[in-house]
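anyone seen this seq b4? input:
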Amino acid sequence: MKIRVLGCAGTVSTESKTSAFLVNERVLLDSGTICSSLSIEELKTLKNIFISHPHFDHIKGLPSLAETLIFMNEPAPVAIYGSAMTIDSIRQHIMNGIIWPDFSRLPTKEAPVIRYAPLEEQQTVTVEGVSITPWFLYHNYSDFGYLLDDGKSTLLYTSDIGPDAELCVAGKVPDSIIIEVSFPNENRELALMSGHLTPLLMREMLQKLPQMPQKIYVAHLKTYFKEEIISQLEALTLSNLVILQDGDLLEL
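predicted toks r here
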């Protein structure tokens, strides 16, 4: 399994892009970054996007992608997967014909450029040789984490979570995990109120697991606090921890 990090920041800046992870060059986890990182030829192969939740930094690439698909005249629509609440939020509040055109009906209702595919928890979809299963890690019934399994390794993509989220999925610890850490330790209360982690909150969660994942990839750092968060993550001295950067390529 190859993961290309199109964007992994918690905020947009001149030096960072928001959450989007390209799996085997054809499947996307979240869509905070798409057209600004992929060429037209790469967009042509992208047919499946799995959205964790409808926060702007995780979906903001979708409107531009939909518009570009119209120009490309691609025959098959791009499938947008997510929980029913996530799909409804995108449909009602973003691509609703007011904020942005409803591209699930364009260029025609019979042949749109995108199609919505609501998922139930544990409803596995297999695409490009990878089985992708959604889980309500955070128990709020809109935010999915996704467990990926290509038969050789497993990866849990948590997206945004709080400290009570479950990281042991289906009774097993994934081989690798992409987990968010958004704030420094000094902002613990803000992290708790907003459903995010600090380095220490992440460590407390990991210590509850029966064993550590082989790799812990950290993403979603808020740009304003980036250097402080990195320093605190490094102070944890976890040998299997990797702080992701835009453009990284992971081979699992």
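The CA atoms of residues 23 and 222 lie 23 Å apart. The radius of gyration is 17 Å. kinda curious what u guys think
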